[in-house]
Amino acid sequence: TGVQTCALPISITGDAEFADDRAAWDKTYNRKDYVFGKEPAEFLVRHVNQLPKGRALDIAMGEGRHAVYLAKKGFQVEGVDISSVGLRKAQKLAAENGVKIKTVNADLNKYRIQPDSYAVILNFYYLQRSLFPQIVSGLKKGGVLVFETNTLEQLKNPNGKDFEKDYLLEPGEVKKAFAELEILYYSESNDGKNAVASLIARKR
To answer: Who's near 88: CB < 8 A, 6+ residues apart?
Structure first.
């Protein structure tokens, strides 16, 4: 499974019209299995060796698959998510893997990323444009952002109707948004299921 097979969370992500995002996400995560699975995204695995060790922040961490993966690699990981149900599952996954992670239950529309604090910031399958400047300021000098989420191309895929246009990236948008960082890797791809923009960028 992957994000492309579970469109409900994507369609509500960051949407101001949903007065109770928390309840919607809690409902999504309130099942025995892991909605997005327990394995990290291939993009993170492929590039993990480029990431400087230290504190890592996982934005909209959900059930913790990326946070736990980094913790196993020796990072000190903090994750933020609106769903306490998702965070409980993240802690359970961490315990299963013999690692510790810190979890923060917060609405990301109100959350503030601490400036100059993180060696790594992860943003997977979540799009909140108002966070972009905070992500840049949250990285320490030499810190690295790993960002991957769906693009407008997703609308052309069979499951496209489940996605809200406002929460899909325009072509080249994320590269432009983080232009002040040093772009180490950038691609846009569509395999017919999942149309994504993938970025790795370092704070100068």
So the answer is: none
